[in-house]
Specification:
Layout (H helix, E strand, L loop, with lengths): L2 H18 L9 E5 L5 E3 L15 E3 L5 E3 L7 H10 L5 E4 L3 H7 L15 H6 L5 E2 L8 H10 L4 E4 L3 E6 L2 H21 L9 H10 L3
Parallel strand pairs: 6-7
Antiparallel strand pairs: 1-2, 1-5, 2-3, 3-4, 5-8, 7-8
Helix pairs in contact: 2-5, 3-6
Amino acid sequence: MSEEADLRSKIVRLGALLYNRQLAHGSAGNLSARLADGSILVTPTNSCLGMLHPDQVSRVSAAGELLDGDPPSKEAFFHLAMYEERPRTGAVVHLHSTYAVAVSCMCHDCTDDVLPPLTAYHAMRVGKLPLVDYYRPGDRALADAVRKTARNAHSMLLANHGPIVSAKSLEQAIYTYEELEETAKLFFILGDRPTRPLSAQALAELNAAFPS
């Protein structure tokens, strides 16, 4: 099986997994992965992650030109911005999962990092989670905001929208996304109860032991 065929099948299989785990719903959310030649496979516009076929997956150039498959997600442009700004990125996951979107709708005094480091796994996989200002769906100005934020973060939260997560592989990006959603869930479960996030010393020890 070719690299492209394998990656198309993986996008379909893992997309269905996310849908069945209720991390994706309806036609919301999109996945992408970069091929060795620099082109990008991305889920099509108005498609459901639970009902995709490999031939439907769009292949676009680094400039966003459709090369094969169905028309790409209307949000493919911010996937391309992530790849452009973070050359080591191999995959991007963007979903509208309930708890993470809820965090994106809240007022935050500081938008540099909107979820506390409640667990070591959140700190290792997600790290800082900056909040990007709201843009209407499809607004190309969002690409510049994502590109700017991606200079210092591989995960981010779009205001009133949902997370974008990037990683070296599709599996790693999905693991990171799931960790983000679980931390958001913990955040709401804990509510106003006194909590003990990881200290600066604990975070420094994690960074030293598990460098990104």
